[in-house]
């Protein structure tokens, strides 16, 4: 009798159905590989240089200052000084008055902001449009909420003869995008500047998306974590600022990306109360609250940036200037060895074409694993250089659409980029010599 009931218990599945098909995670896999094998890690997206001094100093002041209440709980939906300054800052950017208590919510990084959006706004059977290639967590998060992801690709237009490709060469087909909207569509996820390509969506492209959202009463989850990282004088346009879009949009940001402090895990959402009130429900019933001291320090960082807005001393002006130089460096060093870079207009990522290096890592016919993934693994194990395969940013069915690109992160010290260059140069010499 006892063993029967034990057997019944053993055969009952322990895993909740909502986790089905979401157990693999590219970051878990590639972070481990990089930790084991890499000499130079241009894989996961984080700077290897420190955050700005003013931010570190704010953190230290918050930690050891007189206000010991900063070691205790604060308001669930965001530490008051932080939501106040975010409302002021984004109010200015969006050209509208924002209420810190209802139009802003602080989250544990942009990751939790995304999670709150999908849990709060997507129901069983809802469709969510995702533009490929995409930051990988959108797909499992939609699925966990019971929704169905519907993918629409950025299509690569051939660049002009002899010119390097640009992330702007990847474009939406307007008719194809429109065909994905239906009565079942609840939301579209937009990520501009886009990880992994570095594409900065143009006003025309954003208006196309906005018009479809308004026409079909579809929500827009706008992941803008790289909002300050745009190059060559390009402009980052917030889709929430386009006509009719405020009421349809949740805008997501990240102090990790904004202030080069990814480990602090401070993120936020900005949007109309009609949407944010439901995000607050998810937040209060799950995470409830984010680290007070990190929120306090980020609030002070934004205070400084508000005062210096648009001025040369602003970190939001300086960081992209420095990163553009790093981008140009990596573009040059990849181009010199024949690993053709796609010049990114934004973000701190760069996708490169590995076609000329394929002879070093022969294809395995009928392998389940996309070629670029095997290439990236081979590269970190044999050359000590870590990067992320582009297929990681495609849905299961489309992982083989492009199999000859890998993504590098260039938010790295000069010495790191130089070490990457040395590896690539040596590799090229070994390839060409008999
Ligand atoms: N969205 C995008 C597009 C990202 O690239 C990342 C981080 N790589 C996130 C969200 C998550 O940001 P956070 O570290 O603030 O959780």
TrEMBL record:
Question: Which InterPro entries does its entry note?
Answer: Aminotransferase_I/II_large, Kynurenine-oxoglutarate_AT, PyrdxlP-dep_Trfase, PyrdxlP-dep_Trfase_major, PyrdxlP-dep_Trfase_small
Q: Name one GO biological process term.
A: kynurenine metabolic process
Q: Output the superkingdom of the source species.
A: Eukaryota
Q: Mind listing the GO molecular function terms for this protein?
A: cysteine-S-conjugate beta-lyase activity; glutamine-phenylpyruvate transaminase activity; kynurenine-oxoglutarate transaminase activity; pyridoxal phosphate binding
**Residues annotated as domain Aminotransferase class I/classII large:** 39-420
Location in or out of the cell: Cytoplasm, Cytosol
Question: Which Enzyme Commission number(s) are listed?
Answer: 2.6.1.64, 2.6.1.7, 4.4.1.13
Cofactor(s) needed for function: pyridoxal 5'-phosphate
Pfam families given for it?
A: Aminotran_1_2
Associated pathway = Amino-acid degradation; L-kynurenine degradation; kynurenate from L-kynurenine: step 1/2
CDD domains noted in UniProt: AAT_like (cd00609)
UniProtKB keywords = Aminotransferase, Cytoplasm, Lyase, Pyridoxal phosphate, Transferase
Annotated GO CC locations: cytosol; mitochondrion
Provide the catalytic activity annotation: 3-phenylpyruvate + L-glutamine = 2-oxoglutaramate + L-phenylalanine; L-kynurenine + 2-oxoglutarate = kynurenate + L-glutamate + H2O; an S-substituted L-cysteine + H2O = a thiol + pyruvate + NH4(+)
Q: Which family does it belong to?
A: Belongs to the class-I pyridoxal-phosphate-dependent aminotransferase family.
PANTHER family listed in its UniProt record: FI04487P, KYNURENINE--OXOGLUTARATE TRANSAMINASE 1
* Assembly description: Homodimer.
Q: How is this protein named in the record?
A: Kynurenine--oxoglutarate transaminase 1
List the source organism.
Alca torda
Lineage, uppermost ranks:
Eukaryota, Metazoa, Chordata, Craniata, Vertebrata
Which gene holds the coding sequence for this protein? Kyat1
């Amino acid at each position: 009798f006892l063993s029967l009931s034990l057997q019944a218990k053993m055969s009952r599945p322990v895993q909740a159905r909502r986790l089905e098909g979401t157990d693999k995670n590219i970051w878990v896999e590639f972070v481990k590989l990089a930790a084991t094998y890499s000499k130079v890690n241009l894989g996961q997206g984080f700077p290897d240089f420190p955050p700005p001094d003013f931010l570190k100093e704010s953190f230290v002041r918050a930690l050891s200052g007189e206000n010991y209440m900063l070691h205790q709980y604060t308001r669930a939906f965001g530490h008051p000084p932080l939501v106040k300054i975010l409302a002021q800052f984004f109010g200015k950017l969006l050209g509208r008055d924002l209420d810190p208590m209802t139009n802003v919510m602080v989250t544990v990084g942009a990751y939790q902001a995304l999670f709150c959006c999908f849990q709060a706004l997507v129901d069983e059977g809802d469709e969510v449009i995702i533009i490929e290639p995409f930051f990988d967590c959108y797909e499992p998060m939609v699925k966990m909420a019971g929704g169905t992801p519907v993918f629409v690709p950025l299509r690569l237009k051939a660049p002009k003869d002899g010119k390097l490709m640009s992330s702007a060469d990847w474009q939406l087909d307007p008719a194809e995008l429109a065909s994905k909207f239906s009565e079942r569509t609840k939301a579209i996820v937009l990520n501009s500047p886009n990880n992994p390509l570095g594409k900065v969506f143009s006003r025309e492209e954003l208006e196309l998306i906005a018009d479809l959202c308004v026409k079909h009463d579809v929500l827009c989850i706008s992941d803008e974590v790289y909002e300050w990282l745009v190059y060559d004088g390009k402009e980052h346009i917030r889709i929430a600022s386009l006509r009719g879009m405020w009421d349809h949009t949740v805008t997501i940001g990240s102090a990790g990306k904004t202030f080069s402090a990814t480990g602090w895990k401070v993120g936020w959402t900005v949007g109309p109360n009609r949407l944010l009130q439901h995000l607050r429900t998810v937040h209060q019933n799950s995470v409830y609250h984010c680290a007070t001291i990190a929120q306090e320090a980020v609030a002070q960082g934004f205070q400084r940036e508000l005062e210096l807005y648009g001025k040369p001393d602003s970190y939001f002006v300086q960081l992209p200037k420095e990163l553009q130089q790093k981008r140009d460096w990596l573009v040059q060093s990849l181009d010199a060895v024949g690993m053709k870079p796609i010049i990114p207009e934004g973000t701190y990522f760069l996708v490169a074409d590995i076609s000329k290096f394929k002879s070093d890592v022969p294809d395995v016919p009928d392998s389940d694993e996309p070629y670029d993934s095997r290439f990236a693994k081979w590269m970190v194990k044999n050359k000590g250089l870590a990067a992320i395969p582009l297929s990681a940013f495609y849905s299961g069915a489309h992982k083989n659409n492009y199999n000859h690109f890998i993504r590098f992160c260039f938010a790295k010290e000069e010495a790191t980029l130089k070490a990457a260059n040395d590896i690539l140069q040596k590799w090229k010499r070994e390839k060409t010599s008999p």
